[in-house]
Write a structure and sequence with these properties.
By secondary structure, this protein is α+β, with helices and mostly antiparallel strands. It contains 19 helices and 11 strands. The strands form 4 sheets. It has a 5-stranded antiparallel beta sheet. The chain has a two-stranded antiparallel sheet with strand order 1-3. The chain is globular. It starts with 10 loop residues before the first helix and ends in a 9-residue tail after the last helix. The protein binds adenosine monophosphate (AMP) and magnesium ion. Magnesium ion binds next to loops.
Amino acid sequence: MTPVTLSLSHDFADALPALARPWSADPAPAPRLLVLNEALADELGLDAGFLRSPEGVDLLVGAALPEGAQPVAQGYAGHQFGGFSPRLGDGRALLLGELTAPDGSLRDIHLKGSGPTPFARAGDGLAAVGPMLREYVMSEAMHALGIPTTRSLAVVATGREVLREAALPGALLVRTASSHLRVGSVEFARGTGDIAVLRAVVDYAIARHHPEAADEDVPALGLFRAVVAAQADLVARWMLVGFIHGVMNTDNMTLSGETIDYGPCAFLDAYDPATVYSSIDTGGRYAYGNQPYIAEWNLARLAEAMLPLFDDELEPAVELAQGVLAEFRPRFAEARAAGMRRKLGLADARVSDEQVEALAGDFHEMLERKRADYTSTFRSLSAAARGDAAGLEAALGGDPALTGWLDRWRAHAPDAEVMDAANPIYVPRNHLVEEALAAATAGNLEPLGWLTTVLSTPFTARSGAERYAEPAGPDFAAGYQTFCGT
Ligand code: AMP
Ligand code: MG
């Protein structure tokens, strides 16, 4: 039997009161459910029919409290574009509590856009329909691609106007996550100056995400090692699908290894490692090709915050931290190389790592020279392996290196099925996302429904969905920018 109510615990609030401010959502004047993720509701053991009812919607906007809930705004700090802000926190979000999923795991139920909190600073605490639907589309697309991420359960229009450059319809997002602990949560704990708070956050993160770390001589170091590994794997996966997070501040990097905070993120179209879409990233700090370096930089900030738990003395603590941080690059390289093998269909162990690396490197050089579309050009490799190189020729034809590359690659008998499972046909292309959001903001949710349906099975061709696999025209792609949605 699926429960028709929602019952939550308050683990985080109990374990880490120094990071939690009891709070409640602002009333939404006229709540209207825009999208509900029925598959996720099922996974969480929630009844979709109930969530669609007026009582269910009241729960989704925080107007009625789930059984047992003690909602809090979470405190965290963060390095934003390299500069440290000691007090960020949920300015417009609320942790309703944790749900115990049927598989026994704890999942945060979290509202974004639910009104200003004690951490709001000058912000209004609100969110507009477009950016909340954008997070819904992007996070669910990432999930369907097999990439660890927070999920989106629902977007509810609030009936409130949100003032940005113009007046926009307001909405809130109901998000789930294996937790909302961030690198910035540890930085915040360190900033309290109370070592017991720092230890409590680390112990909580270990228990919730990386329990194996508890058995290490220095559990905090074990946690750091686990986060280094999880983030190396995660960012490798981003790179392999052409995902650009856009705002990799330390407050937007989880300890769990889930992707979080879909503000100005976007997928690469024409391949260029220097690609930046975010309007505020004028220096290109968070460009596609920089992401592994930024992840490593963020992890160094995490280590700094945890140093007192590594050793009582500074020097040995730093040495231990550096030793573990040094694991990031090989771990990332290994994850990326394994993924690249699959993308090139070279699963056969007789093809050496060096051969794969050389083929991948040369392929990316051609992509960059031609500014070829990242997603569709990789996907065209399966047809080429099956004997039809027309798609590949259309993308890279004329490149002097192509014929030689094809000969070398084909000599390894690439496996088209492996490639079909590794190179998506459908990713949330910028022009499609914009088109769906514009329609949704104007009241037509149909294009968004189609887009989310197509993106839910990204590796399987769907008849009638051909345009979802195609790049935008050059007029759209040039100068495309994304915004943080604040
Ligand atoms: P983000 O860029 O979404 O990671 O947000 C950075 C910080 O700004 C976080 O502490 C957010 O909670 C806060 N914030 C963003 N938008 C708003 C808003 N409209 N009102 C209050 N706080 C906000
Ligand atoms: Mg954030």
